[in-house]
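Closing statement on the NAX sub-project.
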Amino acid sequence: TSAPLKVAVTGAAGQIGYSLLFRLASGALAGDRPIQLQLLEIEPALKALEGVVMELDDCAFPTLAGVEIGSDPEKIFDGVNLALLVGARPRGPGMERGDLLSANGAIFTAQGKALNKVAADDVRIGVTGNPANTNALIAMTNAPDIPDERFSALTRLDHNRAISQLAAKTGAKVTDITNMTIWGNHSATQYPDLFNAKVNGQNAAEVVNDQEWLESNFIPTVAKRGAAIIEARGSSSAASAASATIDAARDWLFGSPEGDWVSMAVKSNGEYGVAEGLISSFPVTTKDGDWKIVEGLEVSDFSRAKIDASVAELADERKAVTELGLI
Ligand code: NAX
């Protein structure tokens, strides 16, 4: 029997947390390996979080080794092997973009510093809270002793949405779809790429053979799915975001499937012309807790323009948080 995997979740009393914690505890991340949950919330949400912990207790999950809750990141992140940074400040009424970036900047600078100080040497940090790419950049920059490759932002939900849309269009099973890529920012500018994706091993764009659908239906449906869910459900995607957070962490720690890749927003070293240092989504393979950007994929003029637009938005966000002194 191995030591429990110590997993921190921030924003644990929130919507995503309510789905994420139960799946983590039931083995969706690490199978039979026991999990110790370290849950961070702001002070006013701790009472609600206590209620969630009561429910976790009541599930009597065999793989849940223990739960600790609190509002001090230096206590909660102590010795964690994986930190899932879900909690973030949503945009409130009358809040400007700059206000949103500062509010989140305060959260992710503090959490980056705390992780730097107390996390386990092998820590991996996945950022789900929005604006995810830039929050990851802020945390990474504020954790100078943690290798930059240990930080990533979540674009796996977008990736899964793209797979689901393509499966529905082609009548294929989701398991027949491989090599999907989300490029760029986790925002409406993201670019889901069908030109490198495959349906039963065949080029997805050729199988679909419908540029009009690709441009006017597929891309906007994937990119604006979050808004469509708010419209339908009355609140933002939570269970699917939790599921994607687990998919991303599981593949990161335990490896992506042979012959396939996944989408993760990770630090660019200039691959595919993405400005160095930005946390941008790429096709990556993962193995033993490390990721590697898949190189040499074909990027058409159409794809180039879409990627450039999303990366330009990321560069703008970086400029804004630099001016705010957050990085
Ligand atoms: P909720 O508002 O339900 O929960 C957020 C929780 O974070 C709250 O309980 C709040 O008290 C807590 N929190 C705030 N500041 C904190 C801090 N400094 N330390 C610890 N906890 C803190 O939001 P929820 O629906 O769970 O969404 C969480 C985040 O995920 C949001 O930023 C949301 O925009 C983002 N999303 C990201 C997605 C992605 O694919 N990357 C998709 C889903 C989701 O929209």
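Residues 36 and 65 are 5 Å apart (CA to CA). With this model delivered, the sub-project is considered complete and its resources will be redirected to Aim 3.
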